[in-house]
Amino acid sequence: MTTPTTKGGFLAVFFSTFYSKRAKPLIHFLSMLIMTFIGLLMLTFVIGRMMPTDPVIAVIGDKAPEELYEKTYKEMGLDKPIVVQFVYYLGGVLQGDLGTSVRTANLVTEDILNYFPATLELATLATIFGVLLGVPIGVLAAVKQNKWPDYLVRFFGLIGHSAPIFWLAMMGIVLFYQHLDWVAAPEGRLSVMYEYTLPKVTNMVLIDTMLAGDWDAFKDAFAHIILPASLLSYYSIAYLSRMTRSFMLDQLKQEYVITARVKGVSETAIIWRHALGNAWVPLITVIALTYATLLEGSVLTEIVFSWPGLGRYITDGLLAADMNAVLGGTIVVGLVFILLNLTSDLLYKVFDPRAR
Amino acid sequence: MKVLFNKARRLAGMTGLIFALSSGAAVAATPKDALVVGWQFDDIITLDTAEVFEFSGAEITGNTYDRLIGYDPEDVSKIFGVAAESWTVSDDGKTFTFKMRKGIKFASGNEMTAEDAAFSLQRAIVLNKSPAFILSQFGFSADNVKDMIKAVDADTLTITTDKAYAPTFVLYCLTATIASIVDKTEVMKHEVDGDMGFAWLRTNYAGSGPYKIEQWKPSEIVVLSANKDYWGGAPAMKNIFIRHIGESSVQQLLLEKGDIDIARNLETEQLKSVDGNKDIKLLKKGKGSLYYLSMNLKDPILAKPQVQEALKYLVDYKGLEDTVWAGRGQVQQAFLPKGFLGALEEQPFSLNVEKAKGLLAEAGYPDGFEIEMIVRNAPIRIDTAKSMQTTFAKAGIKVKLIPMDGKQVLTVYRARKHQLFFGAWGPDYQDPHTNADTFAKNLDNGDNAKSKPVAWRNAYAPEQMTKDTLAAVLESDAGKRAKMYLAIQKAHQQQAPFAFIMQEQEVAGLRANVEGYVLGPSFDSNSYKDVVKK
Predict the structure, then answer these.
(1) Predicted complex ipTM
(2) Does the pLDDT at position B9 exceed 70?
(3) What is the pLDDT of residue B265?
(4) How many structural domains are present in chain B?
(5) Which of A1, A151, B242, B347 allows an S-S link to B222, with CB 3.0 to 4.6 Å?
(6) What's the first-to-final CA gap in chain A, in angstroms?
(7) Residue B219 lies inside a defined structural domain of this protein
(8) How far apart are alpha carbons B355 and B313 in whole angstroms?
(9) How close, in Å, is residue B28 to chain A by CA atoms?
(10) pLDDT band (50, 70, 90) for residue B27
(11) B479 vs A266 pLDDT, higher one
(12) 3-state SS string for A2-19
């Protein structure tokens, strides 16, 4: 780019700043971000309008008189072309207005601040469990390839991938709640005595109970989250162990491993430091994607455990033709994917010097 | 390798520890002074009494607001004063004068007066939300309502209707949720841009009922607290916690373990499963909801009267009552539910394949035909529809079932684009006009009609029945009126393209120590006021 000259004035300075080597990727990223968002919103909006459900019924119910139907139809802007409807909606979104949910009577932004933390808490715990267990057993399976620990891990993974979550959740409830009394009732995030009294700060109950210094409530919250988080993590464990096994097998075949062995490096160091150190690089993307998928909200788990999460919010919204809620939820899911992609790119650079 | 196994073992140990940590906090019986209810209440979309029209919302409102009058849930013909102590009707039958009860206080501490009652009814008309027609059918509009409903003084309210309707019709409409009395001062404090406090009251509370609404988190929890100053005496339970438990099998587990006191949505399977459990008892009550099959007369096959009659003989009413419904419904074959004034209880139809075959042959379909049936994707509806699919097949009718989400079914139904529809209808108030108005009256069968009742949705436009329905609502003599409805139902039962099949019976599972919970004929008459835990 040209260097600013006195003749070039403001425009030259502008271009030199924004098309400098450092700014270019940022501009590229931001424009991609905006385009992705608009594309995502447009697609969701069109799908929502094409659904064979009348959004007016979601607002006024089945029994309202015809004149009220007509009035509401116009108030919702449904008499206008879909492009105009979308432009109006986009205008609102750009001003931070995601509209009001017809199902909850709240602003969609308020709803998201209420429902997303519930999903965030559950998904984060499930991912932590998933990484803590999935990665080591994946390593174990790779090291013990074609021996019984490997078969066991693969069998475990197969069940994790093929058993329906609904069934697994019910079995988990019957075993750990009904028979063993190890976990709290599948009734939501807290027992009723805490649900109403706990001050809401982050809307993540484990954190809010800690902030309130109420350790009984914390224990109660933990007893509520542990089973759904474990069940969700089972899927991450199954997936992560399979991927870890595969990445580790690739690494263990590499020449540097043989060289290390020849040089007398201990087997533990070879596996955990050298091989796993390199396997982390592709694993980060896998973990980020697993986390992002969990952050969309797991509808069935949320239904079975009466968990007020984002997945249920979006699904209920979709079934009730509550399009503001669906679009708001979609924005959050889109953001989550973009942010996690960005994070995994950054972590890539930390773990892989070649990417710097 | 030992290191590897030790690491794995340690991780397994950690998992055990995590579960062990969480144990102990798990089993907590519900508090003695609080009632915990498990219920699917995700239909609540508002708390404003001018807008509430959903089952769950009506139940919450019924327990937290007072209305002018009420009725006995065991005998709806017994109407009594609630916020109104007494009332009189003028000689011309158009003006109702209510004397307000003294000493009723809203949650804010404000005393209730006739002005609050007048404001609440006027507000419902001006806001004109979905249930507003329950009141506006008496000739009220935003322009005239201040003249027709007014507080003469602090203790006296007058309501003047445009015609002399049957007095019970007017009174029953005043028992509906929309006639709940809100605290005028409190509501108007939150008025924004002339909305009469609508934006605020959708998520807040301004009532005087036995319980106050403390919190509503959609699809999560509703918390009610006892109104210690309630004029009818403070309720025993300090709090009612209503949790949204979407899965009925989970409700069963929670009830069995004592984590909830009442389970509201037990399905047939769960009811069989808890039967005989000494810690659980079942409470049953016939509701007003009717499940029916309707035939769209726009379809040339279904337009033939013999086909309509044949289908009525191809439903296994008794079999459905005994198996699919098993305690959750009773056969009812007329458009008024049992318990309503003038309800017809005769059941002329039963499964009779031979008779149906004869009727089909007469209509020109000796080998049957193919037809589509739309139905909401809910277990009991699907099972009932499947039963009809089986029995219809016995006469050669091949039914293609099209399960849809609830709102999707309604979209098709309201557009008259179906052939057969199986679904439900719940009365809006306890007067027979509510169902006659929708099933037996159709003033304009055109596609762009102003009014589109259920009869219209099926292109059914009976002239005489429409006249009879309009006449019955003006009959002031209850005995004569009952006879008029009986006659309308008899004709309707034989001629209309509707096969009424089942009247819903609500079943709640209660812990054995819970007493005083009342299930009424409508959801707004389900009451927590007298609940005690022994």
Answers:
(1) 0.79
(2) no
(3) 93
(4) 2
(5) B242
(6) 24
(7) yes
(8) 7
(9) 9
(10) very low
(11) B479
(12) CCCCCCCHHHHHHHHHHC
Structure token digits, residue B90: 């003028």
Q: Is A219 on the interface with B (CB under 8 A)?
A: yes
* Number of domains composing chain A: 2
Residue type, B60: I
Contact list, B14 vs chain A (CB under 8 Å): 132
CA atoms within 13 A on the CB side of B407: 20
Please indicate, yes or no, whether residues B213 and B323 belong to a single structural domain of this protein. no
Does some domain include residue A308? yes
Please judge whether B254 and A187 are an interchain contact, meaning their C-beta atoms are less than 8 angstroms apart.
Answer: yes
Q: pLDDT tens for residues A340-353?
A: 888 887 777 777 76
Residues A85 and A234 in one domain: no
Q: Tell me, what CATH number does B487's domain have?
A: 3.10.105.10
Which of B174, B192, B226 is the C-terminal boundary of a domain?
B226
Which amino acid does the sequence have at B254?
Answer: L
CA distances from residue B170 to B136, B151, B474 in whole angstroms, order as listed: 11, 18, 10
- If asked whether residues A64 and A206 sit together in one domain, one would say no
CA B79 – CA B71 distance, rounded (Å): 4
Say if residue A264 is in the same domain as residue A116. yes
Looking at the complex, report in whole angstroms how far the Cα of residue A138 sits from the nearest Cα belonging to chain B: 11
pLDDT surpasses 90 at B268: no
Which residues in chain B have Cβ-Cβ distances shorter than 8 Å to A144? 1
Q: Which two tokens stand for residue B435?
A: 């169902």
Residue B1, pLDDT above cutoff 50: no
- Chain B residues lying within 8 Å of A322, measured CB to CB: none
Q: Which residues fall within 8 angstroms of residue B268, CB to CB, at 6 or more apart? A: B324, B325, B326, B327, B328, B380
Q: Is residue A22 part of a domain?
A: no
* Residue A110 at interface with chain B, using a CB cutoff of 8 Å: no
What CATH number has the domain bearing residue B172? Answer: 3.40.190.10
Strands in B149-153's sheet, in edge-to-edge order, are B84-89, B95-100, B156-160, B149-153
Confirm whether A1 is domain-assigned: no
Number of H helices, E strands in chain B: 19, 19
Same domain, residue pair A50 and A148: no
Mean pLDDT of A226-230: 94
**Containing structural domain, residue A87:** 30-94
Whether B513 is covered by a domain: the verdict is: no
Is this model's pTM higher than 0.90 or not?
no
Range of the domain at B309: 286-505
Beta bridge partners of B243: B38, B221
Does residue A7 fall inside a structural domain?
A: no
| Residue B456 lies inside a defined structural domain of this protein | yes
Token pair 């096959």 in the structure block, residue: B301
Tokens of B271: 């009811």
Secondary structure E strands in B82-195:
84-89, 95-100, 149-153, 156-160
Of B220, B241, B265, B442, which to mutate for an interface test with A (greatest number of A Cβ within 10 Å)? B220
pLDDT (tens digit, 9 = 90+) per residue, B379-397? 899 999 999 999 999 999 9
Per-residue pLDDT tens for B91-150? 999 999 999 999 999 999 999 999 999 999 999 999 998 899 999 999 999 999 999 999
